[in-house]
Amino acid sequence: MTLNLDDAKNTAEVLTTALPYIQRFVDKLIVVKYGGNAMTDPELESSFARDIVLLKTVGIHPVVVHGGGPQVDNLLKELGRQSDRIDGMRVTDKSTMDIVEMVLGGSVNKSIVSLINKHGGRAIGLTGKDANLIQAKKLMMEKIGTDGVAVPVDLGFVGDVVSVNKDVINMLIASDFIPVIAPLGVDKEGNTYNINADLVAGKVAEFLQAEKLMLLTNIKGVLGRDGEVVTGLTPKKVDGLIEDGTISGGMIPKIQCALDAVRSGVKSAVIVDGRVPHATLLEIFTNEGVGTLISREIDAALSQS
Ligand SMILES: Nc1ncnc2c1ncn2[C@@H]1O[C@H](COP(=O)(O)OP(=O)(O)O)[C@@H](O)[C@H]1O
Ligand SMILES: CC(=O)N[C@@H](CCC(=O)OP(=O)(O)O)C(=O)O
C-alpha cells in the first residue's frame, strides 16, 4: 500500500492540533458522567469507549461515573412495575432499590467496563458500596406547597453523598486502571442508597478536585425559554429557570451539580451532547466544545450580579 501524502498531512495536522490540549490536561483528572440517555446507540457507545481509552493513553486520567435511569425503567416495565420521579429523583422503595442495584451495579456497569476493555483500556467496575467508596445518607427533600409552606418529601432509599473515598480512586488511577463507578452509596448501618448519577459525578469531581466535570446527556445543552442553548449561567438565572419550569426533570439535579462542583474547586463543568459522536474528545480537544460550559471564572463573575 502506498502512502497518500495529502491524507497523511491531514492526519498529522489533526494530531498536532490536539497537542496543546493534551499538554494542558496531561496527568489531570477528568470525571465523565455517562448518562443512561446517552447510551442509546451501539456506535455512540463504542465511540465513547474509544474516547475514554484515548484519553488514558495520552496520559489524561478519566474517571467514569454512569447513570442508567432509562435502563432501570425498562426492567421495571418488563416486571410490570413503575416508579415515580420527583424533580428528577426516582422514588425508591426497598424492592425498587434491589432492581436499581441489579441494573446499575450489574448489567449497565459491566457493559461499559467490557466495552472500554474491548478497545484496549483497563477499566474496573465498582459501585459506591465497594471499599465504602461512596458514603451516603438518606436524601431529605422539601417541596413548597401551594400555600407557600415547605413540606418534606420521602423518596425512600434515595441517597445524598456524604463523602467519597478518594484514596481508592487514586490507587486505581496510579495502577493505570480506569474506574467505572455505579451511582450507589452506603451508610454507616450498611443501608444501600440509589443516588442520582449527576450528583455522584459532581461529588467525585469535587473530592478529587478534578480539572473538569463532563456530564454527557441527550440534549445539546441547557435550553432557555425559547429553546436556545443558554450560556453564562449563574445560580440566580438557574433558580429563575427552574421556578418557571424551563429547567425541569433530570436537568434540575444536573445543572445544580455542575454549579456546586465549580463552586467547590472543580475548574469547569460542562453539560455535553452525548449524541454527538466523540463528544468527549471534541469537548477536551477543541476550543468550542459541544455543550453548556460552567467555569469557575463565569460563576465568580456573574454570581455577583
Ligand atoms: N431547560 C432544559 N434544557 C435541557 N434539557 C432539559 C431542560 N429541562 C428539562 N430537560 C430535560 O432533561 C433531560 C436530561 O436529563 P436526564 O433525562 O436525567 O438525562 P441523563 O439520563 O443523561 O442524566 C433532557 O433530555 C430534557 O428532556
Ligand atoms: C435517585 C435517582 O433518581 N437515581 C437514578 C440513578 C441513575 C441515574 O441517575 O441515571 P441517569 O443519569 O441515566 O438519569 C435512577 O434511579 O434513575
UniProtKB/TrEMBL annotation:
The keyword Phosphoprotein does not apply. GO terms for biological process: L-arginine biosynthetic process via ornithine. Its EC number is 2.7.2.8. Pathway: Amino-acid biosynthesis; L-arginine biosynthesis; N(2)-acetyl-L-ornithine from L-glutamate: step 2/4. GO terms for molecular function: acetylglutamate kinase activity; ATP binding. Keywords: Amino-acid biosynthesis, Arginine biosynthesis, ATP-binding, Cytoplasm, Kinase, Nucleotide-binding, Transferase. The keyword Membrane does not apply. This is Acetylglutamate kinase. It comes from Psychrobacter pacificensis. The gene is argB.
